[in-house]
Specification:
Elements lengths: L3 E4 L3 E3 L5 E2 L15 E3 L4 E3 L29 H7 L8 E6 L5 H14 L4 E5 L4 H10 L7 E5 L3 H11 L3 E5 L16 H18 L2 E6 L12 H5 L2 E6 L6 E9 L7 E7 L2 E4 L18 E8 L2 E14 L6 E4 L3 H14 L7 E7 L11 H13 L7 E3 L2 E2 L5 E2 L4 H10 L4 E5 L10 E5 L2 H8 L6
Parallel strand pairs: 6-10, 6-11, 7-8, 7-9, 9-10, 17-18, 19-22, 22-23
Antiparallel strand pairs: 1-5, 2-3, 2-4, 11-12, 12-13, 13-14, 15-16, 16-18, 20-21
Helix pairs in contact: 7-8, 8-10
Length: 455
């Protein structure tokens, strides 16, 4: 029997759920400001043992059949999911407005439905007619793909009872509200209640649920932080609205790897997976061009061959302009300082423009050497020899540092026909199809890759 115990904490963080005994302006757990709200003192109960739903079993005797993946038909989507949708799982797909979340999900749902499964798409942002028009445009019409426009949680559950789907899609979770919870749709309490109800539904019926979520202006998933903890899979959909390339990254996955990346090409007639996206990141030309260099970056477990470009202007009497596209401006500023100091080249009075090809964003230090060679080649109007790539991190002393997964990078470059690679020393870069040129520092790399530059 429950007995009265000490009073429980009277304040709770609406973001992460932490309970504290007194009010604080900043949550000590998630460091969010203004999310700790008063609940009012309430007596606690001492919990006693009760009946169990199922006896505990040795872990080796627990059947694993319920966690098997079922492919959706979208190969790149299946890649980031770990092989497909798992019955009873809840997947959260988040991204900026207009990036293509709804297009991707409805295309995957149509392929699942074409395979014989029942899918129910509940839209709370658009009318059913608007979604029907999009589905027709991307050829996502299937006889077992059902569509409903609802914003009430009870009505959504009613549609689930009526249709009996294998896959439920909610677009978006921030637009659904429960009449039993105070607050408007999209609020912390409403999002938590709606997500919890759909998760209970998924686990009890073995129903795969896909939730589409909004993001804040800072790029974080809107709603309480507990939303990411409750769901099984969290996917981040990224892309520049001025580029065709779209990337979907695994942030969390209870059924597979959490560092996978899927690549998609957003077209007028829908979104298409790119099993070999490196072609988007290369500017094909008949002859080498000064100021360009090719490198290999890692997106999760995936090696992508990417081209970087640089343009160095004439000396200026005023403050020169530095502009970047797809690159970290702070990293470019550091590389310019290293080049000027270690190679005795004056760049402080010249305008410098750097960019990537295909709209990809490069953040990892492995692209440092390629960027440095591109800028030096642009300064001296000298092109790298054809078939050469550069991989390596450049330190402040001008030294070249090894990078991770060098063999995977070289194998991808060799597959695309590159013949030589400038890499740091002692990085385990032997490859049977590629001639590796090991360099200790930036000066050695320039001497090997750009032997005809004027010094």
């Amino acid at each position: 029997m429950a007995t009265k115990a000490a009073t429980r904490p009277a304040y709770r963080c609406e973001d992460c759920g932490l309970e504290v005994a007194k009010w604080v302006g900043r949550c000590p757990e998630c460091q969010a400001w203004g999310t700790v709200l008063e609940l009012g003192a309430r007596p606690g109960l001492a919990i006693v043992a009760g009946p169990v739903s199922a006896p505990a079993l040795p872990i080796a005797d627990v059947p694993a059949l319920g966690a098997q993946h079922r492919p959706t038909g979208e190969s790149e989507f299946d890649r980031v999911l770990g092989g497909g949708l798992v019955p009873g799982s809840v997947v959260l797909v988040a991204g900026e407005p207009g990036v293509g979340k709804s297009t991707l999900v409805i295309s995957a749902a149509a392929k699942v439905a074409a395979g014989g499964a029942r899918c129910l798409l509940v839209t709370g942002e658009e009318s059913a007619a608007q979604v029907r028009m999009r589905a027709g445009r991307v050829n996502a019409l299937a006889s077992t793909l059902y569509l409903a426009a609802e914003t009430d949680l009870a009505a959504v559950l009613g549609h689930v009872d009526a249709v009996g789907p294998d896959v439920l899609i909610v677009d978006s979770v921030q637009t659904i509200a429960s009449a039993g919870v105070d607050g408007s749709a999209g609020g912390v309490a409403q999002v938590r209640e709606v997500a919890s109800a759909l998760i209970r539904l998924a686990k009890s019926r073995g129903l795969a649920v896909i939730l589409i979520g909004h993001v804040t202006k800072d790029g974080a998933i809107a709603g309480p932080r507990t939303l990411e903890h409750l769901v099984d899979v969290v996917l981040s959909f990224e892309g520049d609205r001025h580029s065709r390339l779209r990337l979907i990254r695994t942030v969390k996955n209870r059924f597979g790897a959490s560092d996978e990346v899927g690549c998609f090409d957003l077209r007028d007639d829908g979104i298409v997976g790119l099993p070999d996206p490196s072609g988007l990141f290369l500017a094909h030309g008949a002859t080498p061009v000064a100021g360009t260099c090719v490198t290999v970056t890692m997106e999760g477990r995936r090696a992508l061959v990417t081209e970087v470009q640089a343009l160095v202007g004439a000396p200026q009497n005023t403050t020169p302009r530095r502009a970047t596209s797809g690159l970290d401006s702070q990293r470019i500023a550091m590389l310019l300082a290293v080049i000027e100091r270690r190679l005795d080249v004056k760049l402080s009075d010249r305008e410098v423009y750097t960019a990537t090809v295909g709209g990809v964003r490069l953040a990892e230090p492995a692209a440092d050497l390629a960027l440095a060679l591109a800028m030096i080649g642009a300064l001296h109007d000298t092109a790298l020899p054809p078939g050469v790539i550069a991989i390596g991190e450049v330190g402040l002393a001008g030294e070249l540092r090894p990078v991770s997964a060098i063999r995977v990078r070289l194998a991808e470059a060799a597959r695309l026909g590159f013949t030589s690679a400038v890499v740091p020393r002692n990085c385990g870069s032997d490859h049977p199809q590629l001639r590796t040129i090991e360099s200790a520092n930036l000066e050695d790399a320039v001497r090997h890759a750009l032997p005809h530059t004027r010094r």
